[in-house]
Amino acid sequence: MSSPIHDEIERDTAPDVARAFLALATDYLDRTRTGEGPVSTALDAGVLAGRFDELLPEAGRSVEEIIARIERDILPDCNRLYHPMYMGHQVSPPLPAAIWAEPLVSALNQSVAVWEMSPVGTVIESRVIRWLTDLVGWDARAGGTLTTGGTEATFTALLAARAVALPNAWEQGTGGDPPVLVCGEHAHYAVMRAAGELGLGMRNVVMVPSANYGMTGASLRACLDDLAHSGRQVMAVVATAGSTATGTFDELTTIGPLCADRGVWLHVDGAHGASALMSGTHRSRLAGLNHARSIAWDPHKMMLMPLATGALLVREERDLDRAFSQRAPYLFHPQGTDRVIDQGPRSFLCSRRADALKLWIAFQRYGASGFGAVYDALCARCHDLYEMLNRRDDFETLHEPECNILCFRYLGDGAMSPEQLDHLNRELRERYNRSGAGWITTTLLNGRRVLRVTIMNPRTEVRHLNALIDGLVEIGREV
Q1: How many CB atoms are located within 10 Å of the residue 336 CB?
Q2: Which among 215, 218, 310, 232 is positioned nearest to 270, based on CA atoms?
């Protein structure tokens, strides 16, 4: 028996409704192509919150009204990641084939926890994971799972490491003398967060001093020697391949064999840099990665996938199977095979979106060589900016970029103190972003405020880098 709401639902399945929403996306892609218009909003959070300060709708509205409001109230004040002047955080303008896969993933709405809930999706995720472990150079014992991102991947990897170091921790806890985590001083905050969540405590994270913003094998060796001398158990070492602040790669060529020789679990946070495995130019930065026991990898960064598309890879899939301890006979069923294809038992999540489908579609459309070409192009454009700034007296670069991230400072006439430069660069970034001309980030390096650029958009060309420099100089002189 029909009802008004059922009629509305059926009406919304029509192609013309889909086209109305799709037109919003295609129009956005088209309008950002020229580099015209603002990159972001000049409004603050309070003004935007006031725009949506309204009661819960009691009755529905027409699709036409909703489309009009999206065009009026939402799109103008979003960060336009496809604008060639967006050079901010490590969030990508997603590849088109992956964008168009999103409605299909949502329409099918498969829950990739167990095979019976997503027969094809589960198989596709297993295949995509196999492709990634093959790129690392691991054998058939390897496996993994898709995640929401690097933070979840690192947490899950360290949960697996805890299961090896403390087999009874799931039932008995970590005890009064938990093992330590070792990482470089520029490691992602996910390591500290995981230490707290896993019951180790943040005080049991030992940070290794860096050299040129990266951890070296020599510094790690000295740290491990000190810990061994003091009788401390090491649960895992976390190395970084493409740090958040500077994009620096830790010295995996020595760190990998060192951890292997000592039998220490090595987790590599390659959320940003693992995609270099498909690059002919930058793959060598990951030499030694095959020694890792686990790897975090975010295709939604340098592979330009839509959020959220993260991955955790493990050299021995059984390590991941042992990381979790749960009984759910209504969901997890023995399958009588050597390998359980269900992803739920080895994942932090139960309700799991079939994000593997968009990654599979993107691999089919662009191939590994296409992803490698994108990675190389973004890194090359960042190096162009490095060289351009080095030719000027009113800027200083803090490091040579190892990927697509560069930190630098505006110096003005060179007469200001370090404290004045801190204030200048902080204010410069805020005013530049509010102007709408571009969008960059900032961070602290060696206790000093610096400007930070991440080149994520294949549309960004040298002329846009010139526009960035000119815009910063113009506002810098005003400040």
Answers
A1: 6
A2: 310
Position 331 scores a pLDDT of 46
Does some domain include residue 91? no
In a domain, 97, yes or no: no
85 part of a folded domain: no
- Residue 452: burial class (beta carbons within 10 Å; 0-12, 13-18, 19+): buried
Query: 């196999």: which residue's tokens?
Result: 130
d(CA 387, CA 408): 12
Query: Among the residues of 32-113, which ranges form H helices?
Result: 45-51, 63-69, 96-108
- pLDDT computed for residue 321 by the predictor: 85
Cα distance between residue 370 and residue 38, in whole Å: 30
Q: What is the pLDDT averaged over residues 457-461?
A: 98
Q: Are both 370 and 323 inside the same structural domain?
A: no
Q: Cα dist. 108→63, 104, 349 in Å?
A: 22, 6, 19
Bridge partners of residue 407, in order along the sequence? 452
DSSP for residue 214: B
Asked whether the beta carbons of 407 and 382 are under 8 A apart, the reply is no
Pair (378, 251) in one structural domain: no
**18 lies in which domain range?**
4-31+41-78
pTM of the entire predicted model = 0.95
* Bridge pairing between strands 405-410 and 205-208: unpaired
Is residue 438 packed enough to be buried (19+ CB in 10 Å), middle (13-18) or exposed (0-12)? Answer: buried
Using CB atoms within 10 Å of the CB of residue 224, give its burial: 0 to 12 exposed, 13 to 18 middle, 19+ buried. Answer: buried
151 and 234 together in one domain? yes
Token pair 């204030």 is found at 423
Q: Examine the pLDDT at 424 and tell me if it is beyond 50.
A: yes
Q: Which residues share a beta bridge with 237?
A: 182, 266
Beta-strand (E) ranges in 135-204?
Answer: 143-147, 180-184
What is the structure's pLDDT at 338?
A: 59
State phi, psi for 133 to the nearest 5 degrees. Answer: -70, -30
Q: Give the DSSP H or E segment for 236.
A: strand 234-240
For residues 271 and 323, membership in a common domain is answered with: yes
Q: Are 398 and 386 in contact (CB under 8 A)?
A: no
What lies within 8 Å, CB to CB, of 271 at 6+ separation is 149, 150, 153, 154, 188, 242, 296, 297, 298, 301, 310
Pair 429, 387: CB distance under 8 Å: no
Which 8-state DSSP code applies to residue 252? H
Question: Are residues 474 and 381 located together in one domain of the fold?
Answer: yes
**345 lies in the same domain as 378:** no
Residue 338's alpha-carbon distances to 119, 131, 197, 317, 378, in angstroms, are 18, 20, 32, 12, 42
